Amino acid sequence: MTESTLSLPSGDWPTLEPGWVWLCGAGPGDPGLLTLHAINALRQADVIVYDALVGQEILSWAPEGTELVYAGKRGGKPSAKQADISLQLVDLARAGKRVLRLKGGDPFVFGRGGEEAQTLIQHGVPVRIVPGISAGIGGLAYAGIPVTHRDVNQSVSFVTGHDQTGGPTGSLDWEALSRASGVLVIYMGMKHAPTIRDGLLKAGRPADEPVAVVSQATLPEQRVLETTLDAMVEDIANAGLEPPAIICVGRAVLMRQVLDWQALMRGEAPRNTDPLGRGKPAEQG
Ligand code: SAH
Predict the structure, then answer these.
(1) What are the residue boundaries of the Tetrapyrrole methylase domain, all occurrences included (predicted)?
(2) Which residues pair with 187 in a beta bridge?
(3) What string of DSSP letters covers 82-127?
(4) Which residues have any ligand 1 atom within 6 Å of their CB?
(5) For residue 36, what is the domain's CATH number?
(6) Contact call for residues 105 and 53 (beta carbons, < 8 A)
(7) Which end of the chain is more exposed for a tag (fewer CB within 10 A), N or C?
């Protein structure tokens, strides 16, 4: 193994042993959102099997000589079959490699990490799971949107916009979701945005409910669209927003008017320091 320049704080970091697979989240994009366990894995892996959503910069941190294997799965593009990826991981481990399976966001959030880990364990391959920051939480935070906010919601639902076949999620109970959660965070929702909008409107969510669409969250290319439920489909098209994007539905989106910290960093003033009309700081309430 080539000596890596990636240094870690001193401590007893786990060793990635030959024949093991570490299933690891890479976060939503910004390399600074990697965990220390992920860095520790990058330093030791013989081979990294990575997804489309894992950034090149992160991969470039792997020591020279690390084998990089692309196993992307992106809607519309030719991609490896899930079973093939899982079995490829089994083969690499059985060949005695130290395997890092690197996935965008968190491996267990709409990332099929559970399936891969299950297959590995079924084949007797030892695994370690390293969580990552999921786009639906960290990506929204980069847009200045808190997924929970005391004045808005006591629960949040993470929803996938399409099912296993790539079609709109037919089994989603939009009414139950609407009743249960003041804030809905929708992954993979761009393709089926009209179905999502219609489902939520039919379930009784207000037409003027705030919606944010955050594409390429946490990356320099991040774009944020603020819109409403009834206008979102048209506005997404007009803005030319492309996946990957997170759709956030709910009044938490309004908090961006005060919490858009990237705009503040650029020297802009907050648009509205009290977007929910509370009148005073919550802590004093
Ligand atoms: N395991 C990942 C999700 C994989 S599903 C996680 O925890 O984040 C892929 C979906 O994640 C995309 O369609 C998009 O909705 C979302 N996503 C991932 N990275 C993103 C990013 N940088 N910006 C916006 N959305 C992202």
Answers:
(1) 21-231
(2) 160
(3) HHHHHHHHHHHHHTT--EEEEESB-TTSSS-HHHHHHHHHHTT--E
(4) 28-29, 53, 103-106, 109-111, 134-135, 139, 187-188, 214-219, 243-246
(5) 3.40.1010.10
(6) yes
(7) C
Select from 133, 165, 190 the last residue of a domain: 133
> Could you read off the pLDDT of 250-280 as tens digits, one per residue?
999 999 999 999 999 999 999 999 999 987 6
How many residues are there in the chain? 285
109, 133, 157 - which closes a domain: 133
Mark whether 202 is an active-site residue.
no
110 and 57 co-located in one domain: yes
> pLDDT tens across 103-116, in order?
999 999 999 999 99
Q: With both helix axes pointing from N to C terminus, report the angle between 82-94 and 113-122 in degrees, rounded to the nearest 10.
A: 40
Please check whether residue 189 is in contact with residue 174, taking contact to mean a CB–CB distance below 8 angstroms.
no
Strand stretches in the chain, DSSP E: 21-25, 47-50, 67-70, 99-103, 127-130, 156-160, 183-187, 210-215, 223-228, 245-249
Examine residue 13 and state whether it is found in any structural domain, yes or no.
Answer: no
Gap between the Cα atoms of 168 and 103, Å rounded = 23
The active-site residue, picked from 51, 190, 255, 260, is 51
Mutate to test the pocket of ligand 1, among 23, 35, 50, 53 (most ligand atoms within 8 A of CB): 53
